[in-house]
Design a protein that fits this description.
- This protein has 410 residues and is mostly helical.
- 75% of the residues lie in helices and 0% in strands.
- The longest helix is centred in the middle third of the chain and has 36 residues, at 195-230.
Length: 410
């Protein structure tokens, strides 16, 4: 049997190095996620020594996202989602619009074209699932109204990003990209409509079909399966059933409906939340969720080229300002416009003041289609890492300022 197996090497070395640097970070009283990100830099392609397989690491990280969103869905009811629907939909759309405008603005300063600015702005507009959920869990906000608003907002952002990934390839030439659309999805035509319009209709139709299927069939089938397994005498089979549902639904959602893994897992969790077994299922998935979430931060660290802080510090700063200041100000103002108090508005705005998974997918697609310059990925990854590192501190600072200057939380 060969001993140089990329998958095993990536998991083993990634976990070991993350443990070592995570322990150092904890000893120094730093956020443990700093250790995980440093571990990623150490095993990444831009530092000497062992280099982990970045493609495998990103796929392993995606499993962590699936488990995270499945776990959130287990504690999130349909009524919770409907209750925050208005602010989540309107807020996410407006925030993405303004973030994209800000992306166009700094892209113009960088000397890029309009298309590059649009893709770059879209990549800056969407928050990381892992970071947002981790922050809400650390503060015990998941079951609160402000936590539900943030999660609903994230779900809408993910849906918009799914649509963006469908639209960008056929629009590549319009956005200033390559004429060879080898990255594009095969064009479709519905009722003689324009292929782009047809693609939008088809994508929205698939999302609606998936949600309807989960709410009608899944709400009966998934709890029934786990109830049957729970009545048996094999705890291992119940545990395997939970994993099969989380991963199976997430995969099917992407393969057959074009929905992201995260959203597929989220809706699987939602339909199971109505069952009495939701707490038991959440407990079973917890260890794997935490382990693969660590690999997400390692995979992010692997993408960072540290030289970007020396060669283009002002461009990194401009990118970071959009992520942490521009997005936050827009989100805060929107939540306040919906008559929520300062505490809710600040929690939502800070939760969204970072970027992650979809950002990397979008910018990689933009570079592949030659819409965005290749150096854009360095700025985006640098901004992502700094925003991830600073996100927990923002919560602490905001809480202290709120207690001092807004004791009545109006």
């Amino acid at each position: 049997m060969p001993h140089d197996v990329p998958l095993i090497s990536t998991i083993a070395i990634g976990i070991v190095v993350a443990f070592i640097f995570g322990a150092f970070a904890q000893r120094l009283r730093l956020p443990i996620v700093i250790g995980y990100l440093v571990a990623g830099i150490v095993v990444g392609p831009f530092t000497p020594g062992y280099t982990a397989d970045a493609h495998l690491a990103s796929q392993l990280a995606e499993i962590g996202v699936i488990f995270l969103m499945f776990g959130v869905g287990l504690h999130f009811s349909i009524n919770d989602l409907l209750k925050v629907g208005n602010i989540a939909v309107i807020g996410a759309i407006i925030q993405i619009f303004f973030a994209t405008l800000m992306g166009i603005g700094i892209a113009t300063l960088f000397g890029w074209g309009l298309g590059a600015g649009i893709v770059f702005g879209l990549a800056l507009s969407v928050a990381s699932t892992v970071v947002l959920l981790r922050a809400l869990q650390d503060k015990n906000y998941l079951a609160t109204e402000k936590g539900q608003i943030a999660i609903g907002w994230l779900v809408v952002e993910d849906l918009i990003m799914v649509l963006s990934l469908v639209l960008i390839p056929p629009l590549a030439t319009v956005l200033g990209g390559q004429t060879d659309l080898s990255h594009a999805i095969e064009p479709v035509t519905i009722l003689g409509l324009n292929p782009i319009v047809s693609s939008v209709i088809l994508t929205i139709g698939k999302v609606i079909a998936f949600v309807a299927l989960m709410l009608i069939l899944g709400q009966k089938l998934i709890p029934a399966i786990l109830t049957r397994l729970d009545n048996g005498d094999s705890p291992e089979l119940f545990r395997l059933g939970v994993l099969a549902i989380a991963l199976g639904v997430a995969y099917a959602a992407t393969k057959f409906f074009g929905v992201s893994f995260a959203l597929g897992a989220f809706f699987a969790g939602i339909v199971l939340a109505e069952s009495d077994l939701s707490s038991k299922a959440a407990k079973e998935i917890l260890p794997l969720r935490d382990a693969f979430a660590v690999l997400f931060f390692v995979s992010v660290g692997m993408m960072l080229n540290p030289m970007v802080f020396i060669t283009a510090p002002l461009k990194v700063l401009a990118t970071l300002l959009v992520i942490m200041v521009g997005k936050s100000v827009v989100a805060y103002g929107l939540v306040r416009l919906f008559k929520y108090n300062h505490d809710t508005a600040s929690t939502v705005s800070i939760s969204l003041a970072q970027i992650g998974e979809f950002s990397f997918i979008l910018i990689t697609l933009g570079i592949g289609l030659q819409i965005v310059p290749i150096e854009a990925k360095d700025y985006l990854v640098a901004g992502a890492i700094i925003s991830i590192l600073l996100n927990p501190a923002l919560f602490v600072i905001t809480e202290k300022l709120s207690k001092k200057y807004m004791p009545h939380n109006n």
